[in-house]
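Hi V.,

You were right to ask for the full record rather than a summary. Here it is.
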Amino acid sequence: MTLRRFYFCTLSLSILFGLIGSCKENNAKKASLSRIAITNSTENTPALPQSQKVHKSMFVIAPNGLSLRKENAINSERLLLMPLGREVRVLEEVTDDSLTIENIRGAMLKIEYQGNKGFSFSGYLSPFPLPNKGQSIAGYADKLKKLFPDVSFSSKPTDPDFHEGTIDTFRLPARSWSEAFFMAFAIYQLPKSFGFPDSKGVAQETIEEPTKPTEAWSSFMTITRTENNFKSIEYAYRAEGFGYRMLLTRPNENSFEIEYLSFID
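Predicted structure:
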């Protein structure tokens, strides 16, 4: 099958990432994990009540790590860099979510990391732990489902008329496009050089990977928008002998879905 046919075949793959609403205040004390009061400014989603408790533990989803800063300011002295996937302990509730960094809305959150206390941008923190090194996607989904019952995962072979491969469908309760985006890229180990895109812009935009490997035929991200709101975010990679594509969509206000197609020639 030609590369052109692959792209046309996979363009229709849809993704569903279930964004489930935050816990009610009267259940906050019972919940082991509760929602953080931030949203992505590009999503037109109401912020959670400021009295809502934050998660006691959260995880770094910034691809290149997240700074722990001395004071409650984005330009404050950096104490250290927390790598992708590291766990932090939240010390205070979120009282403001008016800060926007790299198209992501959030707040400076007081946290503790390995005995060090400081502040970090909440837009790069998530209640979802990332997969362990070498862990299968199915095994990771099973582990995650124990913490978040609304998580679901399925995997099936590709159509016999297509290349040999698999199609994963991963549902995950997420707060925002940005959280779903960084989770998808982390779960499937997609390039770290892509930043979170702006929801405002042309109807469709293609961004080539800034550091595309020499062996890659293609490596790009496509953003589709409707009236300055995301419709889908796709990533596609093709090289000799194999390829894959990730498609992230939001079918309704409370759901995201990731579908990941991989194949070999």
